[in-house]
Amino acid sequence: MALSHSALFAIPLALIIVIILSVAEQVKIYSSPTNHAKYTKFCFMTLFFANAMLLLPSCFSSSFVQLYPFLVNQNKSKALILAVLIAGLLLSAFILRRLYQIKHDEDKHFQRIKEYERAIR
User: d(Cα 116, Cα 20) in Å, to the nearest integer?
Assistant: First the structure.
């Protein structure tokens, strides 16, 4: 399955837009704290699925050359790409877990804030 040049351009552009939405939400959260970061969650879910979808095609030579034309089609290059994709999966999963904990007031930082508020009363 060959992707057109416009599709290869549109996918990273869409990811950049999703990331910018997440960054804007994080900036907004600094001024008015909330425990519900829907754009950030959407961003990391998108990144998780993008990494997952790129894992399998990165293993095959024909799609590897098309996805990464700037890399030499060798096992070392494939291993590097697979390591980066797996790291992206793990980091996205970790952030999604942290966002779940924050949303449900289960994170350690929230507990410390509550203890501090009780201490200063």
Answer: 33
> In angstroms, rounded to a whole number, what is the distance separating the alpha carbons of residues 43 and 17?
9
Residue of 66, 94, 97 lying closest to 81 (CA atoms): 66
Closest to 41 in 3D by CA, of 95, 94, 88, 107: 95
**Does the model's pTM come out above 0.85?**
no
- 2 falls in which pLDDT band (50, 70, 90)? low
| Gap between the Cα atoms of 78 and 13, Å rounded | 24
pLDDT single digits (tens) 49-90: 999 998 988 888 888 888 888 888 888 989 999 999 999 999
Nearest to 26 by CA among 14, 9, 13, 43: 43
Cα R_g (the chain), whole angstroms = 19
**Per the structure block, which two tokens stand in for 84?**
């980066």
- Cα–Cα distance measured from residue 59 to residue 23, given in angstroms and rounded to the nearest whole number: 32
Rounded CA-CA distance 110/46 in Å is 26
